[in-house]
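During the practical work, I worked with a single protein chain and the tokens that describe its fold, as given directly below.
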Amino acid sequence: MDRYVCAVDVGTRSARAGVFTTDGTALSHHVRPIALWEKPGGGGEHASEDIWRAVCAAVRDAVTGARVDPAAICAIGFDATCSLVLQDRDGAPLPLGDEGQDTIAWFDHRAVAQAARCTASGHRVLDHIGGAMSPEMQTPKLMWLKEVRPDLWSRLGAARDLTDFLTWRASGSNARSLCTLTAKWTYLAHDGGWQADFLDAMGLEDLRSRAALPDAGTPVGASLGPLTAQAAAELGLSETCQVASGMIDAFAGALGVLGSQPAGSGDLALIAGTSSCIMALTPEPWQAPGIWGPYHEAILPGAWVAEGGQSATGALLDHVLRVFAPDKTPDKATTISAHNRVMAQLTETLAREGAGFARDLHVLPDFNGNRTPLADPLLRGVISGLSLDTTGHELLRVYWRASVAIALGLRQIIEQMEGAGTPVHRLMITGGHTRSPLLLQLYADVTGREVHLRDAPDGVLLGSAIAAAMAGGLAPDLSTAARAMQGHCRSLSPDPGRQAIYDRDYAIFRRMQAHRAELAQMN
């Protein structure tokens, strides 16, 4: 009997599932929405039960769509945003709000003050997160919980990264992925694991017992055992289906596009969606300000991971549509079709006016802070050059120049990485931005690098499928599974005729950053 694997990816607003063959062919792809409670000041919460229901529905849809026997699916892999799930001592949701929200969304910045205290500590864990703690990581969020909601802290029985919650719900295992612990919990996999002196200094001396944290992390792709009877029934799979140790979504994307390449190949993974993560796999550790990591074996055995980030990319373009589109109806403004209409109009406009269109309008894209290279969650975006025009033309101008700004930010991150000694030869892109030929060509032109896309339409889901293949015994390790499943690439080359335009834009971009810093000093 043929064997297959199932992959699940949980993003900010939806859960996706797909069924894959052993050569990486996607037989199905189904999406279910998840609820997001947005809070003032850029906060956000989910309900884990709502997420699990969406995951189960997406998996059942995917199995039906693939037209395969559920018993032939030998393993399932999960990835998710680095949202934080809170549970009580009985494993039930520990709600933060009145509507059952027990999960702090990855982008939530409620713990800015706690993150600043972590940074001020000067502890060596900071050497592995770019020198500064981000409020998007789990340590400051848990500090916030203990300090601001002691009523919940006293009832806390477990705290899990979202992907670890999904593998727990599927298998019953309390294992935590090396990926999640190393990247978001200040766990140093290469040097003793948990840093008790740091946790003590941050007032989290009881974290490991409160959060039910194990002594060690579990490598990506390791089998956590079969599905429980309840999970198998809810997912529509068999009780022999193995559950793979999971990943944060960006790390799954990196595995999906880089897993078959040797560490240090000069390929850079760009996982571009609501936010963007820029990932490098290297054989030796290296450090640079604003670059998260190096994380040891957070994806592949023996390899180090370095991660740059842009906290609002697709989210920034959504924001532009909400603010500048003539039709600002919330449920219409940011749909894929709305983006596609703007992209089509921009393609026609750029064909007439060239890449210098709207060259008098400039954007700094840090509307939700700057991850890399400035590592400042309090920074905010800037738009210079707006007019009183309320027509769709102004939307095109702002949308295009915001897209350029996102690409300029990527160029700055690449420079930061190369300045630390990591060469970048080409960009391997996956995520929602691959649906836009305009953005793909822009990334190539602004960075001066070739852009490569795998045959697989969704590198993030493919990464979790690769992990599932290992857990299901279809491959002895992740690299072997990746080589079997990744397929071929197609590429886009930069247009050298546009280099002068974007060099000018980049010089202005850097000058605007300096001006913003000067203004901040005057406050």
